[in-house]
């Protein structure tokens, strides 16, 4: 085996390890989602309210806005529902990207790979909502499954676009390097 073949073999092994790590992280992420979903309504609401309050408070500090604590609380209460839905999208977008990376070890096109990742994430979102039916004060909602599915789709599309952008930049850099060697 020559040096170029050995380097390709090492790169392939590295990608296999990275993809399998993504699969393990997807399972860990599912456990984290499950743990958050197992919180009773009061506990989940307190975590959400606290996060939103600290986010608005930090924004006040960062931008040097003169907002009273009462105004910060009023703003955080007003946007808490929106923040919860964005968090849902981010949670399931992350899961979908991890699955998309893991699935990459099998030969398939973007649509099939992305569809599989989004589909698996949506199925998990549906089971998560069913799980919430058995948690005190929580409710399983079809609208939450739709929001989670949208997050999964956005996650895969944004990730795929970022990968394409990086590949494009690398290809341009390689072309410049080849031209520079030819000119030298």
Summarize it.
By secondary structure, this protein is mainly alpha-helical. It contains five helices and no strands.
Task: Describe the model.
Helix 1 packs across helix 3. This protein has 184 residues and is mainly alpha-helical. It has helices spanning 3-37, 41-63, 69-103, 110-132, 142-183. The longest helix is centred in the last third of the chain and has 42 residues, at 142-183. The chain contains five helices and no strands. Helix content is 86%, strand content 0%.
Which helices and strands, and how do they pair?
Blueprint: H1 3-37, H2 41-63, H3 69-103, H4 110-132, H5 142-183
Helix pairs in contact: 1-3, 1-4, 2-3, 3-4, 3-5, 4-5
- Low-pLDDT windows of residues: none
Q: Which percent range fits the helix content?
A: over 70%
Q: Determine the structural class based on helices, strands and strand pairing.
A: mainly alpha
| SSE pattern, N- to C-terminal | HHHHH
Determine the number of helices (DSSP H or I, runs of at least 4 residues): 5
